[in-house]
Amino acid sequence: MIKLTVACATALFMLNTANAQTAPTIDSKILLKTTSSWDGTPYTTYPKGQPELTVRKVVMSPGAQFDWHSHPMPAAGYVISGELIVEALEGGKTITLTAGQVLPEMNNIVHRGTSGATQTELVVFYAGMPGMPLAVDHNTTE
Fold this sequence. Notes:
It is a single chain. With 142 residues, the chain is an alpha+beta fold. The protein has a domain of 86 residues: Jelly Rolls. The strands form three sheets. The protein has a four-stranded antiparallel sheet, with no helix packed on it. The protein has a three-stranded antiparallel sheet with strand order 5-4-7, with no helix packed on it. Strands 2-9 form a two-stranded antiparallel ribbon.
């Protein structure tokens, strides 16, 4: 009887220890905190009025390319998978991002993004106001 009691107590102890080791956790990291875009240009203005946040998921096939455009509000992109090459129209500055990296978007500067050799997925966060376009097209011939 004592052996059975000791065995039951040991089993309960082991079960409680296993449950304590698998307790849910939260891991929180700031991925981006900046006052300037990826090329170092400071953010100088912020839209005035009722804030409107927009979150967009973008899936680009290999080699797909956005037209030249600009954003009239602060925005940031998070690369889920693949590779994204972003280039500015003036000056030719470029940056290449891969999965897990964050891009502070250029604000009112003409640029475009191109997917790498594999499919690229990203999520873009826009901080604008109602009625404000997420992007302004700047069609140009190269």
